[in-house]
Amino acid sequence: MDIHEPWLVNKARVLEAVARDDQIIQSRKCQRPQPRFRPSCAPPPYLPCVTPLNGLRKAMLRDLFLEIHHRGVYVLVRTIEVIGKETAVTMLVEDEQKTAFHLSIYNQEPGALHETLRQGTVMIVKEPYLRSKATGEYAVCVDHLSDVIYLYRGDQRVPSLWRLEVSQQSDTAPRWEQVGNGLSKMGKYYNAMECYVNGLRVSTTESEAWSFKLNLALALIQTQQYDAAIKHLDSVPESFQLEKALFCVYQALYGLERYEECYEALKTIRIRGPSTVQVENEFTKVTSRLAEQRYGRYSFKDLQKEAESHDPPLLDRATYIGPVAVRAAGSRGRGLFTTNAVNAGDLLFCEKAFVHSSANTRDVQRRNGVLLLANSERNNVCMGEQAYLISLLAQKLYRNPSLAPIITGLYHGSYMTVDVTEIDGTPVVDTFLAERIITLNAFGCPLSSRKKYLRAIGIESDPQTGPFPFCGLWPTASYINNNCNPNAYRSFIGDMMIVRATKNLPPNAEITFNYFPTSDDNYDECLHRFDSWKFHCQCAICTDVQAAGKDAVSKRKALTDVINRLFRSPERLDANRVKNIIVSMEATYPRPASEVPRISVWNPQMALGRWYRDRKRPLEALDWMLRALESFGYVFDGDMARSGRSLVVQQWGVMDQALIGAWLFLADVYRDIGSEAAAQAIVYAKLSYQMCIGESETFDGRFGRSAAAEAAAA
């Protein structure tokens, strides 16, 4: 073929290259795969096609121009060969004029592509975008899921030249049902759906048609297309297998987490006929989900066990939204506010991730490395699980568009998307909107906050699941604004985020937590750490840093470095010198610690308290640990706490996992001096554990029954 345009390809040469690549892959199969980075460049954002197919004009591949969105047209192509599955699925395709092109499809469902994408697959690409890729190749690139239509072999839009002829004996309802059921048993649900659609086309009776609809709905449920499953079972006639159809609807509703409707569906099934063991088991399960959803009743011990045993750690639990509501937050846009008064430690909400991505080493190898998604327009890089999360979000919204309102209202900066949600009966999903929402709202997270804490303090040496973090999107949590002195704390168990109050809050108080670890020793970082969100933090800590000035903050950092060096040799430590340095550090803060926590002073004071206890000087140890807590913003009756007569927190300060150990340390020191305040210190240790880990059910088992008994007595 004589090629004039550089983006047209020679089919023979490409197929030869694919064969060589296959030989290389086969030769490497016995080698241990190593995680590697897979860079990809995001194109400038563009909107998905919102024109009905009958409003688009058919074009040929030779009609396309480089770096142009061909609005108002579509191309019809079929696959010659799949040639790559890196950041996109890239294939060699041709049109009806036998012009060959590279086609790269991004963000598609891997299972769907694995089954449906084969030699001869026919596709319609709406408003094609021809561009150069990071590899230097040219390809028609499809970024939006809704911009490509895969045609079943029996679809009348497939050109007669490409159409697979089916014999009259095979094109019957019983034959399509037999083949479809066989594919379903093999787990090939997308291929089975094609058979059921063809069977529905040739069915001759209402009973046959409803049988295909039921089988199609079951396959849709297996592929998590719950909206479509419910739609296919709308208005089931009484003469059909109503109980079976209702149970299928129940399964789809459960997948959409619509537990109230699940409960009603199961009640109807029980009323209509004798119940089965399966129905009763599901009734018990959905009753548990409703208890979680309505009242926040969880067995957190069970959640911890399930998170450790499930891979990926996607837990079958409901979301509980407690005494909180989304409201306007002035210049901060929207925020989350209390609806009732709450106390420190109270559960505000426990939310299941809308999408969650977890990469252990096996996942990284299966994906052929770690994705690096560079965005030149915003000058940032999205890496690893956060990059995969974009595709997961787009896929979930495409499968179940009824869930879109939960997500599309989240903060997405100045990006303007389309206001069309469906075209030709197919959901419209804007991948670039998904990217903005993930970039600005997703959270990195551990598998378990408890495991992370126990590893940090050296109690457990649980092996890491890989160097790449877990990541998720929790819609309710996304409304929480930043404050470096927050009043709430987030923790994780699998894909569940648990948020508890860390201070006593009145009604209508805005809930906040810190987007980054709180610090007050870097002036420039304080000014610019939130540039990605386009705001400057005006919390008390950041305001205090600015009021102190760059010189004072730099001095604070230098003094911290001096103390850290001194504590490297505790046996030769000059305690008086450390005290003087701490006094100098405190002088760099314009306001008292009860108003603005002194983050940098906390560690030196706590270290000095531990140093005194190691030398059997409990009263000095007690004084310095209480000072450390006061630097974090905690307020006590100082004389009562220091004498050991009582320990009562009058004001809660900054919450941090280190507080658990601090309270346990205080309990030990109070025991050293024979004070009953040790029991109250255990109560505060358990409460801090509950805030930081998300639950207190596992506290007693880890820190001993004696601690539990003291806490109960207090």
UniProtKB/TrEMBL annotation:
PANTHER family: TPR DOMAIN PROTEIN (AFU_ORTHOLOGUE AFUA_5G12710) (PTHR47643:SF2). Residues 322-516 form the SET domain. InterPro entries: Gramillin-biosynth_MTr (IPR053209), SET_dom (IPR001214), SET_dom_sf (IPR046341), TPR-like_helical_dom_sf (IPR011990). This is TPR domain protein. SMART domains: SET (SM00317). It comes from Aspergillus heteromorphus CBS 117.55. It holds the Pfam family SET.
